[in-house]
Specification:
five-stranded antiparallel beta sheet; single chain; Enolase-like, domain 1; alpha/beta; globular; FAD/NAD(P)-binding domain
């Protein structure tokens, strides 16, 4: 049996532990069963944004006539296959560059294969048994495959295959209206694929209700969305998928397409880790249970990233990894709890969505009195020169009435993922309405939309 000081399972979030721990003098084993770099680099945020950006450009071209620029949408051609080939080549190159870095790093030994726990402190990989005083588990998540009769055995795709689809389908059914569904569905729709979304409970359902309402209105006006639909059967014949679904009124209908993209959520990669051989506990969904120091139910074994199911964002995993480097390698009996700053998120689709802090429903449950300021994109001075006359969008800023501190901010519209950062910083610093008003905003610039929401809040007593 090989002995190490540290074992890291997963090279995505695990990158925040492996080399830094080795630099401290620890002998480290890092294990990866898939492509090096984890989900974000290979099948997540990086390749998806490389594809979504061209889709955003095409969407802008279609609105050019509102600026008296005449571009016939029918003449816009996209070599989608070449685009995906370029992105795939770039991602593979970046992924392939990771292993040599580990192999050149002193005190690090890389294992590529499937890790399985044999006991609390023993991990098997490629027939070898490894043990370590400290173990970090971050194997990520994978697509949830819904139990729809007829689905098994068909050539459906998940986000993993969609990001490397070498042939653009003429038509596609997307099951799901969450992050993955609306981002990848938007990409394929703008590439010219006739894309239909099947949504059971609503779109981007964890967002603020006002944001959801506007998003569903705008998105469904651009792309076919079937709301309140529960899939009941899949048939694949003659290279065509036919999905049967039941509506909320009880009607049974169907839709057909060349491709079927499953975007019904994710499940953790814990079912084949051998956790049943350990004292590491998981919840009913399979996510690893951790305490407020990210330690599992086994001493000196930590889990972080998507596999704990708290924040399914790479930026969350990065923060957790940095926290563990400060706490897990000390001999202090008292280890400070992880204290998350405001955790932001963004959805890179059209319209773009971003948020930080509480939604209105959450805020009303936690705060007795609220002050809410809302501003529309179209009322901004920047709307005149830079936004299409029909531009939609809004910003919502919420404050506790007594402390007057910002507790939630939500933006839907152009550059939402960039504009939310000022609200992230304000919230982190405990800013009040007065602090946000006593700031000079560049005129004219889109962040004045945030300022306008603050002004609306300040009008309320």
């Amino acid at each position: 049996m090989k002995k190490y000081d540290v074992i890291v399972i997963g090279s995505g979030g695990g990158s925040k532990i492996a080399r830094p721990a080795a630099h401290l003098g620890n002998k480290v084993a890092i294990i990866e069963r898939g492509a090096m770099g984890g989900t974000c680099l290979n099948h997540g945020c990086i390749p998806s944004k490389m594809l979504i950006h061209p889709a955003e450009l095409i969407s802008d071209f279609k609105e050019a006539e509102q600026f008296n620029i005449h571009i016939d949408p029918k003449t816009i051609t996209v070599d989608a296959e070449k685009l995906i080939e370029r992105v795939t080549k770039t991602i593979i190159s970046e992924s392939d560059s990771v292993a040599p870095i580990y192999r050149k790093t002193p005190n690090v030994e890389l294992y590529q294969g499937h890790a399985k726990f044999l006991s609390d402190k023993v991990v098997e990989i490629n027939g070898e048994q490894l043990t370590a005083e400290r173990i970090f588990v971050t194997p990520g998540v994978r697509a949830c495959i819904p139990a729809i009769p007829g689905l098994e055995g068909t050539p459906y795709i998940t986000h993993k295959e969609a990001l490397r689809l070498t042939k653009k389908p003429k038509s596609m059914i997307v099951i799901g209206g969450g992050y993955i569904g609306v981002e990848l569905g938007f990409f394929f729709a703008e590439m010219g694929t006739q894309t239909t979304f099947i949504v059971r409970d609503g779109m981007i359902k964890n967002e603020d209700q006002d944001v959801i309402r506007l998003f569903e209105e705008v998105f469904s006006a651009k792309y076919p969305v079937i709301f309140g639909a529960t899939p009941t059967k899949v048939v694949y014949e003659n290279n065509i998928f036919t999905l049967t679904y039941v509506t909320k009124t009880g009607d049974t209908l169907s839709v057909s397409a060349e491709a079927l993209l499953l975007a019904a959520g994710v499940v953790p990669n814990t079912d084949n880790l051998g956790l049943e051989n350990t004292s590491i506990k998981t919840n009913e969904k399979g996510f690893i249970i951790v305490d407020d120091t990210l330690q599992t139910t086994v001493e000196n074994t930590w889990a972080f990233g998507d596999v704990i199911g708290q924040y399914l964002f790479r930026h969350a995993a990065n923060y957790q990894g940095e926290y563990l480097m400060k706490t897990a390698f000390t001999d202090d009996l008292f280890k400070p709890s992880i204290n998350y700053p405001p955790m932001p998120h963004a959805i890179f689709t059209n319209p773009q969505v971003a948020g930080v802090g509480l939604t209105e429903a959450e805020a009303r449950a936690k705060h007795k009195d609220l002050i809410i300021g809302t501003s529309l994109y179209k009322d901004s001075r920047m709307a005149t020169p830079c936004l299409a006359p029909a531009q939609y969008g809004l910003c919502i800023c919420m404050y506790d009435k007594h402390s007057r501190k910002l507790i939630g901010a939500h933006i839907i519209g152009r550059e939402a993922s960039n504009m939310i950062h000022m609200c992230i910083a304000y919230m982190k610093m405990g800013a009040t309405i007065e602090d946000m008003l006593d700031t000079i905003y560049i005129h004219p610039a889109l962040p004045e939309i945030v300022r306008n929401a603050v002004r609306k809040a300040a009008e309320q007593k």
